[in-house]
Here is the input.
Amino acid sequence: MSSVLLRSAPALRGALRVSAAVKPAAMASTSFVRGKATLPDLSYDYGALEPHISGKIMELHHKKHHQTYVTGLNGALDTIAEAESKGDFTKAASVAPLLNFHGGGHLNHSLFWENLAPASREGGGEPAGVLKKAIDEDFGSFDAFRNQMNTSLAGIQGSGWAWLVRDKQSGTLQLVTRANQDPVTGSYVPLLGIDAWEHAYYLQYENRKAEYFEAIWNVINWKTVASRFDKA
Amino acid sequence: MVNFGNILQYLAVQSSQNSLSGEEYNITKMAVTTYALPTLPYAYDALEPYISGQIMELHHSKHHQAYVTNLNKALQSHIAAVASNDIAAQIALQPIIKFNGGGHINHALFWQNLVPASAAEASPEAAPSLSAEIEKRWGSLDGFKQAFSAALLGIQGSGWGWLVKEEDAGLRIVSTKDQDPVVSGEVPIFGVDMWEHAYYLQYLNGKAAYVENVWNVINWKTAEERFMGTREDAFKALKASI
Ligand SMILES: [Fe+2]
Ligand SMILES: [Fe+2]
Here is the structure.
């Protein structure tokens, strides 16, 4: 099942970080041995996104929330593998919602950490080069894009994410929102994601989520977004 | 004039295939109702230590208020859209009305089904008929609490858990997503808000502890009254306050 998840989302292979160090001998002895999803390290300190996102939020968000998705994903994969080995495909299929939720949570957060950076380093500013050109063409201007993204974020009813994606079919950039932890799939390649769950901002911004949506632009890593765009 | 029936009727129209201009639910004939934030029947810090005063204050004065404000705004816009025969605008407003109307209804029911832990109403003994029915259905009160708690913890994202009474099926635990309102025919007995804003400042990611503690502040007297009454009765109690 994990290989299916990886196959259907080739651009996200790095994000899943399934361990490649499974020994061939072990592979041979059990039909369903596979790598475990693991929590990726952040490339910056928990406090490095302050004052825009507090260190406490980052620590809980990474160490607790993301870890829960990793644990849940591995648990779901274990259940599926066990059910599969017994030929109980009804049981295996019943795990699909958990796989989607925790697998999506793992993918989304892995992408999110990488498209953030401290404001003192790559974070903030505006995109350049071909990405800037594409944003200007598809949204009118960077400001118009940012406003539309903030409107999308504010319009999410409940928990979810907003994404800047490249639609491989039309070749254009688009904004999409996803409920809960539903991952971006199909012809959409995720370039930039913003977590609109309350846990992403509540300790610092409480109910004032519009302030969080404003502040986060100071810590967007446009280098990451540009490199995803190049590969999309 | 406050008329809680309007929003229920509106939501009923949305979920059925009735024509919007049908005689029975003629929205243009509805008066412009302005909904108001109900006052809490207890102080913000009265549910401590189980739900902090800071959570209660933000939850009531900010979150619930935002649902009320946005509901009123959307209903105004909707009436204007009906008057100008702008069907596209009417359709675009429906999810906004459902979300904010649901948020208003759910929170209004929620505040009433909570009570300070020291009150007599916080004991299941205040709900003799409901308790008997719960024991019949789940074996014991503890069995029910476990099942309800599991439903709460199984919610993926924002949502609510409700104990409801259905005409045919009797008592049932349901979970609803986001602010989907409990207006589809069941009698809501009590609900628990599982949005992160309901517990995060106090419990952080430890939502299981919130779920465990919320049992201390369930208002079993309200639950009993709702259980004994009809769906209309449950909402009638709300009409007076909003
Ligand atoms: Fe998150
Ligand atoms: Fe709430």
In short: Residues 53-83 of chain B form the longest helix (31 residues). Residues 120-240 of chain B form a domain with the minor pseudopilin epsh fold fold (CATH 3.55.40.20).
